[in-house]
Structures are given as structure tokens and as C-alpha cells.
Amino acid sequence: MVRKMFGTDGIRGLANKFPMTPEIALKVGMAAGRIFTRGDHRHRVVIGKDTRLSGYMIESALVSGFTSVGMDVFQFGPLPTPAVAMLTRSLRADLGVMISASHNAYHDNGIKLFGPDGQKLSDERELEIETLMDNGLEDGLVAPENIGRARRIEDAQARYIEFVKRTFPKHLRLEGLRIVIDCAHGAAYRVAPAVLWELGADVFAIGVEPNGMNINQEVGSTAPAAMIEKVKETRADFGIALDGDADRVVMCDEKGYIIDGDQVLALIARSWARTGELKGGGVVGTVMSNIGLERYLAGQNLKLVRAAVGDRYVIEKMRAGGFNVGGEQSGHIIFSDFITTGDGLIGALQVLAVLAEERRPASEAAHIFEPAPQVMENVRLKRGEPLSDAKVTSHIKDCEARLNGHGRILVRKSGTEPVIRIMGEGEDEKLVRQCVREIAQVIREASA
């Protein structure tokens, strides 16, 4: 069987439209609650969310679902996704839930689930939940005296702040550094500036005025121009831009040049290999990781293992190969010594730790390799499955042949949006750009 609602990062869609309706959220709570009820102890689930207006609606429905099957609910309010993963383990919860659509606009929302180990659920577990949602939920309703209770946890943000600070080396401080932090009007709008300030930095915060409908709007990791402008305006030493749920980060140096996830992997791999902290003999990236990263690591006698796009697939490769550093070009960076999922703030702190240790500005230390030209284009689907169209597949093969081993083409369906993502990479940027443009046009025609 194939999952119908769960994608690469939980369930996601337009708020108040299938599958992001209160009815579906209620069923998710009932089904997941039943599956993660183990033993005779009082079962608990923790719920965090970002700042979207629809979060109130989805949260209330989830609470109803979980309490109806006998689970107690701890509600955190606005808190980053990685904080929910961490607190699921810390509070010995049976299940963790994050209500967020990550980097999407406010009108979307989503539901991400974490097991008691703080790991995102496997495809098999998600399919199990979907199957139960379609069959006999009423059988799991508990007697009136066993209905769960719900309460808000007031110190969740403080717990996370202290946890993140402990990942920064004790012998280092951020005194004297001017840092811009863009919180995307999202889940980290309180905790991220607090962490940086408490570690000694002079903090310039933007994207910290959520109103329910401005999350990711011209701010955050998908709109880094706001961060860059603020860095230049304040003459800051470093810029950090998080996405709506703060599991993703994009950074920039004091000159405003972007430091993406691939550069972060290279920087940390080099530094941690020297200190003996790097495990697995390299790092895990994705099929989107730039070939420049692969070449750089090879020159350092380190390897790049590629996973499918999605941080949980990166994590699966990390666990299988014994790696402790992995991530995506887009800014999901995972440090498994600290946490079970991508954490934008922890990722930024590890980069800052290297800069502080080496006593070099970001413009010198954080641009490790020269990336190969990479061109990307998204095609929004109107209907059908164009990737199975003979003309589309034939054109992709033709473009690969034209690159003649000096580049690559990657065409994939997004797991979070109804779009086809096309990536071309190679030494001849003009040819790569032409191939991507041609493939996009053929896909549009096949989907029309």
C-alpha cells in the first residue's frame, strides 16, 4: 500500500482543505494515540506549533483526538520542530507532534509526528496510522473516566534554550560578535534571539513579530535578502535566517554572501575531522548536494554519502553508516551527537563555534569549496503524472547524454507540494541552463 496523506515531511496542505482539516487532525490524533499507547502507564503526547493562524484549529482537533483515546496532552505553544523532538524524549512522552508547514506560506499547515525516541516516524508507521484512520476509530474510544487531560507547559521554551546553549563549546563565547537573526515570524521568534544573547552576542533580530499570517513572508531562510540587508545595515559579523519551524537555516558572512547547507557540511567535516569528532569518515548529503562538495571532501580523504531528499532519509543513512553529521543543501543540518532531527539554531551555533575557535571572519572561513554551476526550476502540476510520460523521460535521457558525464540532471516530484523539481548541474552552465529549461517546458506540456 502507498501512503495517501503523508509525504516526505508529515501531512501538509492548504489549511481547512483536505487533508489539513479539523476532521483529519482529529483522526490523526485518535489513530496515532491508539498506536502509541503501550503498557499500563498514563500515556502522554506533546504538541508544539509555529505561529500560523490555523495552528489553533489544528491543535484543538488533535487534542480532542488524543484525549478521546486516553492520552494526556502537553501543549507547548510556539516552539521549533527540533524542540518538540527533544522534549518528546526529555518528558518521556509516547508521541510528539509539531503543527507546521515549515517554509510554506501561512495559508498552508502540516502535522509532523515523532516517536518516543524523538525520531520522525517511518513510512511504515505512517501507513499504519493512515490505515487505522480509515477503519474503526470508534473502537479505540476510552470510557469516560479514562479520557485524557490537556495542559499547557509554561517552561518549554526555557528548557529548549538551555538545551541549545549546551551544544556550544563551554570554553567559547560570542562576545564581541554582532549577529543578525531572522526568525521568519515563526516558531523560534522568542527562543533564537535569547540563545544568541545569552551566549554573549550583540543581537539584531528581525522576523520576530508574528501575526498569524506573515510567517515566511519576505523573511526567513527562503527569503535571505532580508537577512543580508540587515547584516549590511548593522555592519554585523554574521547572519542567520531560520525557516518557519526553525529546522532549516541559511547563513551569510559579514559581506552578505550566502553560506548554504553544502558549505556548512564542508566546514564542519573539515573542522571535526581535525579534532577527531567526525564519525563515519565523512558526511551524509542528498542527491541535491553539489558535486563541488563531493570533490572537496574527497580531497580531504572524506566521503559524501547521498540520501534521498528529506531530512529523515538523511538521518536513516547516518544511522546506517555511523555518521554524526548530515544535511541538505537547503539548510536542514543534523548533528546526531546533539539531537535527532534538523535544528537550524544548533547548526548555526556549530558554524559560529568553528569561526570563534579559528578566530577568522566568516568570509574567510565559511566558503570552503567552489560549487559547480547548479540550475533549478519548479513546475507546478496541473494534472497527471508527467514523469511517466514517454516524451518527458526521453528528453531527460537526451539532456543527460548531452552533458556527456560532465554534469547531471535530477528530476523529482516534491514530497510537500504539487510540483516537479528539476535540478541540473555541470561545468557548462549555459548547457545546463538550456537543459533545465527544455525539460521544464516538456513537463508543462505533459501536465497541461
Compact summary:
By secondary structure, the protein is an alpha/beta fold.
What does this 3D model show about the protein?
The chain is an alpha/beta fold and 448 residues long. It has 4 domains: 6-155, Alpha-D-Glucose-1,6-Bisphosphate, Chain A, domain 3, CATH 3.40.120; 173-246, Alpha-D-Glucose-1,6-Bisphosphate, Chain A, domain 3, CATH 3.40.120.10; 259-365, Alpha-D-Glucose-1,6-Bisphosphate, Chain A, domain 3 (3-Layer(aba) Sandwich), CATH 3.40.120.10; 374-447, 2-Layer Sandwich (TATA-Binding Protein). 37% of the residues lie in helices and 21% in strands. The strands form 5 sheets. It has a 7-stranded mixed β-sheet with strand order 1-2-6-5-3-4-7, sandwiched between helices. Helix 5 crosses helix 6 (191-198) and helix 13 runs antiparallel to helix 14.
Can you give keywords for this protein?
Alpha-D-Glucose-1,6-Bisphosphate, Chain A, domain 3, globular, single chain, five-stranded mixed beta sheet, 448 residues, alpha/beta, seven-stranded mixed beta sheet, 19 strands, 4 domains
Uncertain runs with pLDDT below 50, 5 residues or more?
Answer: none
Q: Report how far the terminal alpha carbons are from each other.
A: 28 Å
The top level CATH class name of the largest domain? Alpha Beta
CATH superfamily of the largest domain: Alpha-D-Glucose-1,6-Bisphosphate, subunit A, domain 3
Total of DSSP H or I helical runs spanning 4+ residues:
14
